[in-house]
Amino acid sequence: MVERVYGLGGTSVGDYWLGDCLGHGSCTAVYRASTGAAQCALKLVDGRLSDDGALSERLGRERTILDAIGHGGILPINDAIRFQGITAVAMPLKPAASLRDLLARGPLDDELAWSILNQVAESLDLAHRRGLVYRVLKPANILIDEQGHAYLAEFGVTGQRIGQLALATPEFQMAAPQYLAPEQVEGRPLDYRADIYAFGVLAFELATDTPLHGTAAPADVVRATLHHPGPSAHARNPRLPMEVDAVFARALAKDPARRHRSVWELMEQLVDPPPVEPSRLALQSPPAAPAGAPLQPLADLDVSNVEGLQAGVLDTYLSACVRHARDVAGQRWPQVVELAKLERYGAADPPQDGESVPEVLMLSRIAAAVDAVCGAEAERCLSDWGALVAAGWLRSIQEKPPWIAGPPTGRLVDMLSVWVEALDRVRGDELHAWKQVNKQLFRVVHMQNMTALGRRRDTEGCHFWKGAYEAALEWAGLGGDWLVAEVECGCVTGTYDCVFTLVRSNR
């Protein structure tokens, strides 16, 4: 097995001829390489990080998903091979400076730093939604071109043992070890929450213009990651509000279950830090039901703590929801009908007389039934359901107003005004509100969310409304300009009030 990966310029690895070395660590090196007439960046990972071929196998699988995503902010994996104990990963050779290089020149101005965080958040969130984990988020792997566009490089190119080597091997030198989450240090299985940790470190360092653990040696940094709380961002930069320390403490929690549920939730809290609520920091995702397990009857919806519940909903809207749920469920519709107790609407839509009917809880039952029946596809089905309902409902109530025009921020203000008014008409009460936090972030509140009522969950469940907002943005000609995230789920808190953010995309 070949372990040394530095000093191989002028030799070949598989079909790749190695030119000059662009950078290296103890176990990795990146070369300018060529295969035939094509040039690329080739990262070599020696056997100490992945001695069983698992890294190249995983990257081969993830390459297909990255190709399907096709997001411009994520540099693709062109090839991943195993050669004499070395894992070699080919990537595009991007003519751009790394964020590490930019930071070496001095602190970034606030606008550029925030733009980079927004772009990285968008790319990470997209990857997380497809089940991928970046694993190597750090300034050296974020490339910034002359127009300020940010790109994630070396997606997933690291082995399981990197943290253990940094902890146990004194001669092992690793740049930016503070970006390793505790579970990476310990070599435990990872999910997207390791990226939440690394993104929290990135945001901390950009906000304070200081490294998280100063100039400590790599082994000391990873020990601090495991055993010591993070420093105060407010103490490092008094311009930051004191409340932001609680936001960073959550992002950098030792236990992944205590971290933010998404990078967008973390971003929103950095803009508007909430009061510290420790009870919400220990939320954990529920264990997945065993494959093939029989569906259990849905419990009655618990709405006892919702005071003054307005149980009415326009029958025309209810009919649209039932019709499109049937479209999305397809052959699984009979199961949805059975679980949601919708027998009377199994084959026929509810009447459409323009009246308010006491059936709003039916929408929550449909959402719970789709969750149960569709399994791993539930998130997509719920999102598709919301998109179909929103698109059809907006077209039915009115054509897009001519005054929804102009710059994206102004158009979003106009769209939200129409959207919230339409939702209030559905309920017959003012149960929806929106607020502009700044030019790049809006917040929308659904009080007594129609698809959340009575649904107690440990993880967010309002994929219906994410799909609905995306369809509403398309209706207003804003598709791709704004990103939608849920930051407080009423199914989790038990309030049944849900909060969504719309964040300006920097593409």
Structure report:
By secondary structure, the chain is of the alpha+beta class. The chain folds into three domains: 1-93, Phosphorylase Kinase, domain 1, CATH 3.30.200; 96-278, Transferase(Phosphotransferase), domain 1; 313-504, Alpha-Beta Complex (H-NOX domain), CATH 3.90.1520.10. 38% of the residues lie in helices and 15% in strands. It has 17 helices and 15 strands. It has helices spanning 54-69, 99-104, 110-129, 162-168, 182-185, 193-208, 218-227, 233-236, 244-251, 263-271, 315-329, 333-340, 360-374, 378-397, 408-427, 463-475, 490-493, and strands at 12-13, 16-24, 28-35, 38-45, 79-83, 86-91, 97-98, 142-144, 150-152, 313-314, 356-357, 432-438, 441-446, 482-488, 498-504. The strands form four sheets. It has a six-stranded antiparallel beta sheet with strand order 1-2-3-4-6-5, covered by helices on one side. A four-stranded antiparallel beta sheet has the order 12-13-15-14, with helices on both faces. A hairpin with a 2-residue loop joins strand 12 and strand 13 (441-446). Helix 11 packs antiparallel against helix 14 (378-397).
